[in-house]
Amino acid sequence: IITKFEFKLSKWKQKSLSMGGRITLINSVLTALPIYMLSFFRVPKKVVQKLVSIQRNFLWGGGSEVAKIAWINWDTICLPKNKGGLGIKDLSKFNEAL
Predict the structure, then answer these.
(1) How far is CA 78 from CA 10, 14, 39, 60, 70, in A?
(2) Model-level pTM?
(3) Which of 8, 90, 84, 83 lies closest to 98 in space, CA to CA?
(4) Model confidence pLDDT, tens digit, residues 4-48
(5) What's the pLDDT score for residue 63?
(6) Which residues in 38-83 belong to E strands, given as ranges?
(7) Helix, strand, or coil here: 40?
(8) Which residues are within 8 A (CB) of 33 and not within 5 positions of it... i.e. 6 or more apart?
(9) Distance of alpha carbon 16 from its chain centroid, rounded?
(10) Are 9 and 30 in contact (CB under 8 A)?
């Protein structure tokens, strides 16, 4: 899962995306792949933590391995837009629910 995740991300790393573009990419592509896998079996917590780490780093402008400063708590980012978040799906909660 992590390899596929990083492969999808590597295609977009070279392109200069705005914050809105990165959020859209995370919600549409980088969340869909793990949710599909999570619907079949429960993924180990370490794998989910790595996927969330990749999402977080990509959101703040780094690559999958390059960490940047996170200016907002990830739990706040995962809140719905009407509650002040960015509407990004929380993979750890999906892992528990599915």
Answers:
(1) 23, 25, 20, 14, 13
(2) 0.78
(3) 90
(4) 777 777 777 656 788 888 888 888 877 777 777 777 777 788 988
(5) 63
(6) none
(7) coil
(8) 1, 4, 5, 8
(9) 18
(10) yes
